[in-house]
């Protein structure tokens, strides 16, 4: 096994026997259908695109939501009470789920969370901006948007170049100046998005 510190950070595909082609879907254990639909469809705006029995447990229902780009988030739901208490952080558990929102609607997203009575934190992460809230079962949900326009098909390349510049700079985390330099070095436009002010750096997203 290689030393993890020696594994290169790069957008190049590793020499591996399998190469994935993208996320097909992520499945979470939900509580009940009504609360799940109310949060993910009615608040976050994900289309409910498929509902069928759980093929491994027909006593529960399998809900499929389109996150906005054809990538799917699914839930196994049944007649279970929702529990808004934060989910624990055991090894193997999900720390948080991050979905993207349109930077042009970032203020509207913040307002919608407030109007829905949802507590949230707003952090400037330098290379992106994040709102953190929780769903009806205590799952930490990150609503993230890019601080700079990055082409989807160049995202991995841009992030890997940002990492290279950050390490050369000796900084402990990626900052906007590193991302700007990465975009410039890859001959991509440096197009920052005005998202207003928020606490910056590392913060409590719990």
How is the CATH topology of the largest domain named?
Answer: 2,3-Dihydroxybiphenyl 1,2-Dioxygenase, domain 1
Number of self-contained structural domains = 3
Count of alpha and pi helical runs? 4
Sequence stretches where pLDDT stays below 50 over 5 or more residues: none
Give the name of the CATH architecture of the largest domain.
Answer: Roll
* Widest β-sheet, arrangement of strands: 1-4-3-2
What portion of residues is helical?
10-25%
- Rg from C-alpha positions? 19 Å
Overall geometry: globular
Taking the alpha carbons of the first and last residues, their distance comes to 33 Å
User: Structural class, judged by helices and strands?
Assistant: alpha/beta
Task: State the CATH class of the largest domain.
Answer: Alpha Beta
Please provide the count of β strands.
Answer: 8
Strand content bin: 15-25%
The average pLDDT value, as a whole number, equals 92
- Corresponding CATH superfamily of the largest domain: 2,3-Dihydroxybiphenyl 1,2-Dioxygenase, domain 1
